[in-house]
Amino acid sequence: MEQHSRTDAYTDRYAARAAGMVPSEIRALFAMAARPEVVSLAGGMPNVSALPLDAVGRMVGELVAGKGADVLQYGSAQGDERLREHICDVMSLEGVQASADDVVVTVGAQQALDLITKIFVDPGDVVLAEAPSYVGALGTFASYQADVVHVPLDEAGLIPGALRETLSRLRREGRPVKFLYTVPTFQNPAGVTLTTARRAQILEICAEYDVLVVEDNPYGLLGFDGEPMRALRADDADRVIYLGSFSKTIASGLRVGWVLAPHAVRAKLVLAAESAILCPSNFSQLAVREYLATQPWREQIKDFRELYRTRRDTMLESLEQLMPDGCTWTRPAGGFFVWVTLPEGLDAKAMAPRAIAERVAYVPGTGFYADGTGHSHMRLSYCFPEPHRIREGVRRLAAVVEDEIRLRDTFGGAVTDGGTGVQAPGPDVV
Amino acid sequence: MEQHSRTDAYTDRYAARAAGMVPSEIRALFAMAARPEVVSLAGGMPNVSALPLDAVGRMVGELVAGKGADVLQYGSAQGDERLREHICDVMSLEGVQASADDVVVTVGAQQALDLITKIFVDPGDVVLAEAPSYVGALGTFASYQADVVHVPLDEAGLIPGALRETLSRLRREGRPVKFLYTVPTFQNPAGVTLTTARRAQILEICAEYDVLVVEDNPYGLLGFDGEPMRALRADDADRVIYLGSFSKTIASGLRVGWVLAPHAVRAKLVLAAESAILCPSNFSQLAVREYLATQPWREQIKDFRELYRTRRDTMLESLEQLMPDGCTWTRPAGGFFVWVTLPEGLDAKAMAPRAIAERVAYVPGTGFYADGTGHSHMRLSYCFPEPHRIREGVRRLAAVVEDEIRLRDTFGGAVTDGGTGVQAPGPDVV
Q1: Whole-model pTM?
Q2: Which of the pair, B378 or A226, is modelled with greater confidence?
Q3: Are A136 and A282 found together in one domain?
Q4: CATH no. for residue A331?
């Protein structure tokens, strides 16, 4: 009883924003999905084992032994200056011209999202996001009580006409928009990429409505064909806040990301970062800096691309061969994810426990919408499992979907609940 | 002009809380204080060079080479489980009995402060803090628009009678208190330690008024005499949220801290951590875990203690010998800081530029108060400079103070401004 009343007592004390922090309904499932017999097509974990671990270990060991007084000490809140210069070099691959002074190093791009939301969003403020959108961003927006308004995308990315309609409607309703959050390239979760033509249109519309753009680009260098796409930021330095990350191009366990912002915004972000974490880890930052300075990182990214391309191919071939009629899916040209739409009447969220029972895991689409929709979708990731496991996972999944179709045909469509999909992200579903 | 109007446009877009994020007025001074000819008694940087850097480098190198697939991968938002078990061992040195399941690993204790404030504090909510209090905590509280109410301390730490009076007054005013924030042991900035007798009284008063306690204890193991103090958390597991850090006992550049909270609160903290950073760095966490598992960390802490004790002694002796009459200061039994009170009519903030000109830096007391007071105080740190530099720094400082006394006697007391002291902390003044 004492324990119970204590729990209630805490509940009464929480800030209003804490109400938006609720655990994912699928968390318990993911605990089961971590078992080795389950093929997980759920997680967005990069394949860090492909790194030359001996060489990286040697590099890090020498770094600590030789420069320990810096590596192990506090740094500046904005992040290491030489690392920020390297970051500008990395961004130049996507056409971005930037000064190191406008970059803030963050604990993964997730912290950049948190800081941006913290400095811009009052409770009830509107943030625009693609439908579907990155689950971790939706979690952050919810934690600051943002009102997320979705804008649909298709195979060519965010739909300009839909963006304009949404902005026009919100203007009529007198609801100002704090920013548009978008993952234009190899989108998480949909796997689609905003076309060059649409990039110009999106920027034009945002200029017309004077809306800031938060461009989240963790996968930009992991394209399977040709040169990297030109970033939105490359064509509008004043309007676009750019988020980058080394989680997918070097290693997620380092937690090194960054934000490039207009100078005045950058100053606010540094202050927000100070009050949030004092400063990012020099240990991680200088490891990344040393890696970029001494290791063949461009070649390593090519290796990652080939590895993920092979897995993407395996997944698309398996889907083609094995999935029952009525399922459709996107064909990513890079990144980690395929977005599957189930036949009419099937519910990916309701189906998830049955899939786990059949030893295959995915993320139900509901996690990627703030408005309770997404039941007919699922996100499949091909980044982490070996190709033969991807094929086996799709085989199991196809069998589950076939069963669902049979059930639907026998008993009618699935009943979907109407709960919102906003959930804390969980590192297992990045 | 375009640039200017842009800047204004951003300003209009910020959240209300961003108004509380303002740069420190002394930041420009600190840039100058970083010059080698200046003796800095300002920073709270631990002496990480005292670590066996070769051995730590070797350990880290082998860790990455041997366990890279874990070290470089995403982890759980709560933090590595085996590290959390080690953390419980560390806390047991201060009498704390805890389960690893109630610990959340954070990006330094600063992030723990941020997450706690985020889940508990609505704009305008009252947070109690010592007068003076840790500048970084005040920055975090300001960033969530908390209303900080100070409670005075003396040589024996937070004054129980003053706490009771404050709580009673706030109750009469109908203003509920979200929590009491305290650094009971080797306090930052005052260098004082809450006595055992007062610990019981403080807990009793907080129980009577049903107030949560946030116990921030980064210096607890760095005492110069006898056994570590018993933590407040050791005597009230339900009411006290405990913050710890490896920044001072291992290395600040790793950014590994933690929070131990009642179970229900811990669950909220994990969700808040997920939306803030997804997960803490495995690279840093597993380095700490390996260090605690394989290196003689207890002996290393003893070495740190001896090193800081010598510096504390040097500083106290120098102050005794060199400072003019009318100055008083605390005598810390551990930690990093001495708190100096200047003679009547002197203003430590106004004096700071003149001190820098004389090649010595300190933190003016105003940074440690949310209410614009603290002008007659300054924080001196002895943790980082070599003893001969400490002596030289105090010599220079004493000369500056003597000049100020002469000026006061000739022209009357200093004019102090009434601005609030709330500032973003800055890693240079931790």
Answers
A1: 0.95
A2: B378
A3: yes
A4: 3.90.1150.10
Q: What is the DSSP letter of A250?
A: I
Using a CB-CB cut-off of 8 Å, the residues of chain A touching B127 are: none
Which residue range is the domain that position B148 belongs to? 66-294
For the cut 60, the answer to whether the pLDDT of residue B427 exceeds it is: no
> Which residues lie below 8 Å from residue B292, measured CB to CB, with a gap of 6+?
B83, B86, B89, B90
Measured between beta carbons, the chain A residues lying within 8 angstroms of B430 are 74, 278
CB contact under 8 A, B287 and A283: yes
Q: Does B318 lie in the same domain as B225? A: no
**CB-nearest partner of A56 from B68, B139, B251:** B68
**From A18, A48, A281, residue closest to B68, measured CB to CB:** A48
Residue A266 predicted with pLDDT over 60: yes
- Among chain A residues, the shortest Cα distance to B55 is held by A65
Q: Is A195 exposed, middle or buried (0-12, 13-18, 19+ CB in 10 A)?
A: middle
Interface pTM (ipTM) of the complex?
0.94
Contacts of A143 in chain B (CB under 8 A): 118, 271-272, 275-276
Is pLDDT larger for residue A424 or for residue A11? A11
Q: How many domains does chain A have?
A: 2
**Domain annotation covers residue B12:** no
Residue A2 has pLDDT above 90, yes or no: no
pLDDT (tens digit, 9 = 90+) per residue, B233-270? 999 999 999 999 999 999 999 999 999 999 999 999 99
User: How far does A162 lie from chain B, in Å, by closest CA?
Assistant: 24
Partners of A271 on chain B (C-beta within 8 Å) are 21-23, 143, 424
Q: What is the largest CA-CA distance in chain B?
A: 69
Handedness of CA A282, A285, A288, A289 (dihedral sign): negative
Are A164 and A311 a contacting pair, CB within 8 Å? Answer: no
Please judge whether B17 and A45 are an interchain contact, meaning their C-beta atoms are less than 8 angstroms apart: no
The pLDDT of residue B23 is 78
User: In this complex, which of A54, A68, A284 lies closest to B281 when CB atoms are compared?
Assistant: A284
pLDDT of residue B10: 81
Question: Residue A426 — very low, low, confident or very high, per pLDDT cuts 50/70/90?
Answer: low
Q: Are B114 and B140 in contact (CB under 8 A)?
A: yes
